[in-house]
Amino acid sequence: MNNDEAYDELLHRSNGAMIVVTAHDGKHRAGCLVGFHSQAGIEPRRHAVWLSKANMTFRVALHSSHLAVHFLGADDKELARRFGEVSGDERDKFDGLDWAPGPGGAPVLAALPDRFVGHRVAMFDAAGDHACFILAPEQAELSADAPEAETRPLRVAQLDDLVPGHEVEERPVPADVNDPSG
Ligand SMILES: Cc1cc2nc3c(=O)[nH]c(=O)nc-3n(C[C@H](O)[C@H](O)[C@H](O)COP(=O)(O)O)c2cc1C
Fold this sequence. Notes:
This protein is of the alpha+beta class. The protein has one domain: Pnp Oxidase, Chain A (Roll), CATH 2.30.110.10.
């Protein structure tokens, strides 16, 4: 096993929890399934979300002040499929879903009540295929009842059969995330 394979296996074994990240830039609505995310600060609270430069959600997030982060439960595989296998470049994945604008217009999905909307406080590009958005949680909400242990959370190993709407290699040109004009 080479270094990359060993790293991939380490991450596979850690089996991270999945989220759906949504954004609105004033014109376009977007959202995608995300596995690369984590808490990134305690005081003040910060959360890091990594978006693929190939995704419509990345392009919309570049011009959004806020992102909504929805935590998926084990029963939410169909929503994971909708946000992870379809690109907003092809069709409106919000069609038929109940949602409302949250802070900064970020679309808040009624079907996913464990969530927060975060104000974007920083962003950086590590010169790879994903860019990092650092969020300050502004509006955090919990479902009325804590889900049963066996229904939370939806983990990446449960999504082995999903085919991403955009593969990372698809990004047209390396986007310069430091250029606000996109
Ligand atoms: C298991 C799984 C994990 C994913 N993790 C991420 C991720 O961490 N960040 C990301 O930007 N896209 C991730 N994706 C890919 C996007 O969810 C997918 O390409 C989506 O269709 C993009 O939609 P968009 O073009 O409307 O933004 C993941 C997809 C799958 C199936």
